Amino acid sequence: MWTDPPTHRPLSGLVSQAFTPKTVARLRPRIADIAAELITGLPDGEFDIVDAVAYPLPLIVIVELLGVSPADRAFFKDCTDRSLGLRVDPALPPEELGRIVADATKEPRRVPAGRGPAPPGAPIRRPAQRPRGRRARRRAAPDTKVAALASMLLTAGYVTTTLLLGNVLLCLRDNPGVEQRLRTDRSLVPAAIEEVLRCRPPVSQAYRIADEDVPVAGEVVPANGFVTVSVLSANHDERQFGDPDRFDLHRDPNKHLAFGHGIHFCLGAPLARLEAGIALNRLFDELAELRVGDDITFHDAEFYGATRMTVSARRG
Ligand code: HEM
Question: Which CATH architecture has domain 8-200+266-315?
């Protein structure tokens, strides 16, 4: 995500095969099993749905995909939470906070890639094996880059999808009638997830540095200028989306920017969509009623979504 061509291509090439819609579709049965395991065990009454479902589901999926052994799952979650500042006291002095975050980002690299039961085609196991042929070796990304990529995939593939699942429930809360329509017509679930991504994009900002002077809306972003782009605002642009504040299950086209745009377009989009669809369907199957309560903690950085959300549920 943080590299430009020509460095970007070999890194992207390493993982893109593992994330095509076709490859990801093969993960469906395993994701369905994980969702079933998490959701069938949910109690009647109040609980934190982020902790019970939205955190563990994408975490288990991504660590399995990366070939991390189940025994290291908690370690990886801990590193990710610290590296994103989720479990760091924000009152710490900035240099202390920076050190904890930097250490946590490096720590996952200590775990040898490919140690666990990686599925065939796991993105990290493949490059960990030395490519055959001199030319292939020359083109291959160095191990440090592979390790950094694994660490980045873990973060990109976990917290974002956690927040998406919570955002689905927030949209259902805010738009009475939608849940009932989805329960009776499950074919609308994919469109609902797209509309959630538009209205409440988990990654609400993107960052760029201008290569050259770029005129935008009457202003000039100077060369080397740092730009923060608001995905949230773009997704509510009335020139692109009629009645942008309305949650519309039949919005067509729905060209939201929740997964970015251009060469950095999210590689994990098919996986995130699949996980969210499976989880929502399973929640509808198991729970006759699911109400979001007032006890919600929102992520306080550039992510948009809940890190804790109490719901009250009644089993079907
Ligand atoms: C709802 C869930 C997700 C959202 C909202 C999301 C959002 C995004 C966005 C906005 C970008 C572009 C950032 C930019 O241009 O600066 C991006 C890139 C990326 N995402 Fe996701 N993502 C999600 C899930 C995932 C998953 C599950 C994975 C992997 C398992 C993943 C892997 C990546 C990678 C590797 C990139 C960088 C692609 C590149 O630079 O070539 N994402 N994502």
Answer: Orthogonal Bundle (1.10)
